[in-house]
Specification:
Blueprint lengths: L1 H30 L4 H12 L2 H12 L3 H26 L2 E2 L3 H21 L1 H5 L4 E2 L1 H24 L5 H8 L9 H33 L3 H13 L1 H12 L3 H26 L2 E2 L4 H20 L4 E2 L1 H21 L1
Antiparallel strand pairs: 1-4, 2-3
Amino acid sequence: MLSFAGTIFGIVLLIGGGTLLVRGASEIAEGYGVSPMVVGLTIVGFGTSSPELVVNIVGALQGATDIAFGNVVGSNISNLGLVLGATAIMCPMTMHSAVVRRELPLLLLATTMMAVMALDGLLEGGVSVISRTDAIVLGLMFLIFVYATVLDFLNTREDDPLLVEISGSSVFGGSTKSRLRWLLVIAGFVLLMIGGELTVRSGIGLAAQLGVSATVIGLFVVAVGTSMPELVTSIIAALRDEPDLALGNVIGSNIFNLLVVLPASGIISQIPVPPGGVGDVVFSWVLAALLIPVFFLGKASLGRPAGVMLLLAYAGYAGWRIVAG
């Protein structure tokens, strides 16, 4: 019971720390004259993934690589199945933005790269690991993503729906004094570090108590908890009739998980692919691949029936994975 409570409390600290960090950093950037559009594309988009980043770094430093692996893959599965499914049920989403349309194939490419790396052991007859070399390759891929995003920002017309939605959206509302902004950033970092340490340590204890692998705890406890910022952000954006912002939040977060969070922990310590990990990566790839025909054919709309199917697929896989251990 203490391990479960510790894990939940750690996740709460992670979410709170990430929220404070994003708010403080956003207001500091705007204070220096950075446009809300740039803030939305960078700080807010990637800031919601700060809990995953901290958990993975702490996990790598402590040798808890199963939780680190499960957190990244589980977060991406949660974003595509749980977050997009729940958001589509509440408010069907239609993609209009050319920026998001170009990011979706990049997400599929990044997921494919990770799947190939996870299959490395099967293909070459060795042990499957995300090595430091793999981590560096994924990190270099992130630089390409940043380059493409900057080009999108410079070359895309100002009336692109995603850019319009970002410009017109207030991230957290209101403004604070300069000193308080920095205090928010510092407090955010402190809460993130404490929450990351507590989540990893309690997660390992919870796995031992329940008799399941640490990977399962990472996949369906830690990952779901750290995906709450994406869920809240996407639902709010969809309810405000900002579907491209909701989609961009999920897709950007998954890309960040694959190309920054995983490499950051992989450079610290190579990450062995745990038992069942290949299946987790393949399921994540299937969810990403399903979005391609949904948004590139027909009306490019994710409606309630598709949302229900995503949620059922997520629930079904989660149930099978937990039983399988």
